[in-house]
Amino acid sequence: MAWPVQFLFRGLRTVGLVLLYYVFSIGITFYNKWLMKGFHYPLFMTLVHLGVNFCLSALTRRVMQCWTGKPRIILTWEDYLRKVAPTALATALDIGLSNWSFLFISISLYTMTKSSAVLFILFFSLVFKLEEPNPFLILVVLLISSGLFMFTFESTQFNMEGFIMVLLASFIGGIRWTLTQVLMQKAELGLQNPIDAMYHLQPLMFLGLFPLFLYNEALSLSASEKLFRVTELSPLLYSLVMLSVGGTLAFGLGFSEFLLVSKTSGLTLSISGIFKEVCTLVLAASLMGDRMSNLNWLGFAVCLCGISLHVGLKTYYSKNKVPSVRQLSSKSSELQLPLLWQNGDKCEDSAADDYNDEEEEQEISLH
Predict the structure, then answer these.
(1) Phi, psi at residue 350, to the nearest 5°?
(2) What is the pTM of this model?
(3) What residue stretch is flagged as signal peptide (predicted)?
(4) Distances in Å between the alpha carbon of 3 and those of 7, 9, 128, 330?
């Protein structure tokens, strides 16, 4: 293939994968917010999403096994409960609280507050010694913190209860992604492929979130005409279909992130995630009527500068220093890359390119 044609093909492929990632990432945010206007049971919604994710990941594992002829990894009960359970519990609380907050706050405030997850990820990365101390990290923390303060200062749509929920979700998200990095770096577990990780995480996530659902929503939901007291079948089917669509979007988001990282690089997804936040806020202002002052926009810009600085530092040190974390060889014929999530979405990988004959190694590092 001629060089210009190959270059054009790679460019179009990257743009297509980024757009696919945007569709699922932005789509699920607006979809959940829209659904919460008429269905005030976010924890039940999250449980349905987990069930759909488990079914789709199990189906994908079956297809991959038939395609490759190799059996997929199945953990022992001891490894499952001791090593996977903490990550699953943190992930369940992060997602549950995030969805719960949509009952109280706007998309713009949610997006901005969720960006603070980078701070907590940095903190727990230092605690677990996954990140080396660096003086520039202080500047990153100051930029993101001051940006968050300016964004929420005198906000006309500020809600303390929802803000605390998202902030708590971001804090737990820091624990979540740190544990996820540790989990996916343990080569002996064999969970480097995110489909396998999703398959093993979903059941424990469901069990971890179920008690909170019983405490907060079970009684109200059982008396609601949305599901259990329906008088006709069509409203029940409509509710189940709408909930399942959200679960499909959640699975599509994880898979689109995986494809983008495996076909391009972790840096591509990191930069795409920054622009995704801009797109989300612009759409929230135009479609949802979110009101933002000049100070709020300035705070958002300052926060993005902090996140961009963090991305740049990670890229610089990964190229100029010996990686401090375990690396995975890309020689396997299977897609064995972990996901990279932005904002509480957040793992960083270098991927082997289809057109590159060199053998590369992929470093898992938190974002």
Answers:
(1) -100, 130
(2) 0.72
(3) none
(4) 6, 10, 44, 24
